[in-house]
Amino acid sequence: MILEIAVTSLLSARRAEAGGADRVELCMELGVGGLTPSPGLLEEVLNALSIPVNVLIRPRSGDFTYTDYELQVMEQDIRYCKSVGCAGIVSGVLMDTHEIDQAATERLIEASGDLPFTFHRAFDWTSNFEQSIDTLLAMGVKTVLSSGQEPQVIAGLETLQRMQLRAGDVLTVMPGGGVTPDNASIFAQAGFRALHASASQIEFSWSESFPFSFHSAKHINEQVRYESNTGRIQAIKRGCIL
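RESULT FIELD:
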């Protein structure tokens, strides 16, 4: 069974390999579901590890429905990842209906070339897992990361097993989203070929509170999307003129 560990730092990547991980998925900001890592972080991790490094391609938090501009950025990120030697790409696109956007996802798969492509947990927003599995099979996706369409993976075990039956030997269903030392054996005994976890814990915490927080809840709301507004910029610019 392949154990994939989601890591967001060079330290975590080193610890994943030391702990026996077979592969890492490199990203940033797990608190919003993961974002594309920086080029500097990616290159340092690639240089430090001897195990495969898959890379998450997700340009922002929120939903998984992207504009053409965002898709262009994602394609460019994939090309960069290929050029520096990553082992695989983790990404995916949904339509406004939360079904898999096959045309947009195929653009990312094409950019990935011969690198194996994992469709990430956006899959868990789709309404019909059987139809979604068939779509992934048609596109040649190698792995799908899923919690069985539940907030916690252990609750989705039965669905995950049905997904793997649907996928057969062609597509690997990789449970993830709440895998712990206490429940990992359940998925191994169920016959899954891969397992995904962050295996993270609090490293340290500040003893004193900060003066104020820079976190902005409105910008990580999955039901809205914020973009710069030309009119507001022009109004601010006018205010800058004395």
